[in-house]
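Deviations from the work plan: none for this task. Representative record:
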Amino acid sequence: MSVEQRTARLHDTQPIAEAHRSPPPPGRVTVLSLLLIFCGLLVLVSLWTLASEDELSLGRRPWQNLKKTVAEMSEPSFLRVWFGDTHAEARDADGKVLRVDDQQANERRYLAGVGRALWTTLRIATLGTALAALIALPLGLLAARTLHAPRPLFWGAKAVLDTMRSIHTLVFGLFLVGIVGLGATAGILAVALHSAGTLGKLLAEAIESLDAHPVDAVRATGATGAQVFFLGVWPAVLPQYVSQVLYVWEFNIRDSTILGLVGAGGLGLLLSEAMSLFQWGRLATLLLAIVIMVTAFDAVSRAVRRRLV
Amino acid sequence: MTALAVVEASGLYVNAGDHVLLRDVNLSVAAGERIAIVGHNGAGKSSFLRAVSGFNGVHRGSLKVLGTDISVIRERRALRDLRSHVAQVHQGLHLIGRLSVLDNVLIGGAARNASWLTWIRRWPAHEAEHARAALARVGMSWAAGRRTDSLSGGERQKVAIARALHQNAPMLLADEPTASLDAEAADEVINLLTALVAERKSTLICVVHDLDLVPRLADRVIVLRRGQVVADVAVTANTASELRGVMK
């Protein structure tokens, strides 16, 4: 049966309601089940090969190790602000007093440092996301299929976005520390480069999924391409884009907490310091600080985003 | 074929991929005519309207709109110019919901004002005045500052008509302008459309789903079936019932 005959049957000789009631084509069901079988096989193969390479063991004493870690971290260092010893004596092997520490004052100083690092992390994420939003804008527009950018620009933008998205912030950070030196600048640029890839793709998809009717209606008035974009596409896509930028910002606040691990500023530096000095109490303090900041920011951002769209 | 023909299709074929949307359509619409196009879903009604406004390419044959052959237009500027002379009212789906009602009406004047200031929705004062007048004509002045997605279906359709008015084109295409409206709102929209078409002596080509509306909207009705014109007759008092017989 030719395409024409089939469509003619669908549209003309049958009432529409009946055409809708007919069972779904078998093709879709098969695709879904094939996908499930494929995923199941992939899981089995992964498990089997990893097990045969002896990569799936939990170590020698996982249970004891877990208990030990939990015990070490169950005493967050910030408690010393109130319960710390004001005359903690450090002695050498002969019992000679080397120095006397005020643990409370020490911890207060440390917490102030944590506060500064949190503030730096927040600034890195904010500036990085703002820069990413600017970079992503032209790239996202070029990569949106429905805007019909010239072919080479379309493919170029798509390639750049894919590359930026596939390189992790931390990897960008490693490179950038080598280029612009240690510190927040490297962090900001790392966040911006990776997030621009994500935001550009999200923007392109938001534009592609816009309802074509209103945009075509603007075009139908004889508007120029730029007018179609600014009067038809932009007002519809802007709130979505702002919401996406907020989401990526939220994500970046989480992500930039580890940027300091490669020397790109912020909390990560304190994290790596606490870990290499085995100061589990301080690690616990840092993790708590991260959880509180991220949760607070998530809540605010989610509330704002819900009002946007 | 009179010299006054605003739409002239001869041997018109329109395809979408392998799918034939319109086949061998021959018809001529004179200036000032009011035409209804009816047919089942997929019969090619909307495809014809899209072809007339240059959204569907002409596969074979020719289609002249306002004296310009659409199949040979290569320049975007020429196509834009043609489109600016063809106003459209669709199913109320085509307004920008997040823009104000007045901003939506102003879009009708886009082709006259190519300045980049229109990109940030800054229009010349006389345009704003003209748009407000169009809104007043359809009785929607009160909503000028409202966001368009806060309006009801009928109100939105009146805004769409105001945009077409503001566009000030000699030809009006309407695609099921009363679909998804309740009887009362549909009635109002149709009265408005017919009054405006009579006032400005514009040509109206209207896709109609509800056959009872045909006598109110049109003097001539074209029945499409599988992309072909199967009837092209003057509208009389019992056209609606005749059409039901043809379309069964």
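The mean pLDDT of chain A is 85.
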